[in-house]
Amino acid sequence: MSAPVLVLTTGGTIDKVYFDASSEYEIGEPTVPHVFREAGVALEWRLHSLLRKDSLEMTDEDRALIRQACEEAPEARILITHGTDTMSLTAEALLGIPGKTIVLTGALAPARFKVTDAIFNLGLALGAVQSIPSGVYLAMNGTIFEAGKVRKNREAGKFERL
């Protein structure tokens, strides 16, 4: 059996809920448990819902909190769900944590939507966190990117290497 994985949720589009009455999105409960259950994920994992923020609202203090949670976690493999707009900044803030494989992922459309990249991205991140060496990575658009070497191209709606 593989080592347990910590899933840290921080908010972002992946967990957004749409309210018809107000035509607004709010960040809801983490969707990871539902996605993992539907996919039949059998490995041992633990959920820690750390924040519920849009990544554009993330502060240096939030990134320090995420880093502290990663450093203090007993798990060596950590999957973080995060908003895509500043995911690369958070990844860079996590560089240098020894002995941990940290993979950040998110979605351009909420996981609750019928058409979404969330489920694919979570699967990619879960596979990556179990199979790549220690370090910090982003799992988006079918690609694993190294932290500090990736950016979000808003116009193209995808991530790309620097």
From TrEMBL:
Residues 5-154 form the L-asparaginase N-terminal domain. It comes from the Bacteria. GO terms for molecular function: asparaginase activity. PROSITE patterns: ASN_GLN_ASE_3 (PS51732). Substrate binds at S55, T84, D85. The active site is at T13. Pfam families: Asparaginase. PANTHER family: 60 KDA LYSOPHOSPHOLIPASE, L-ASPARAGINASE. This is Asparaginase. The lineage of its organism: Bacteria, Pseudomonadati, Verrucomicrobiota, Verrucomicrobiia, Verrucomicrobiales.
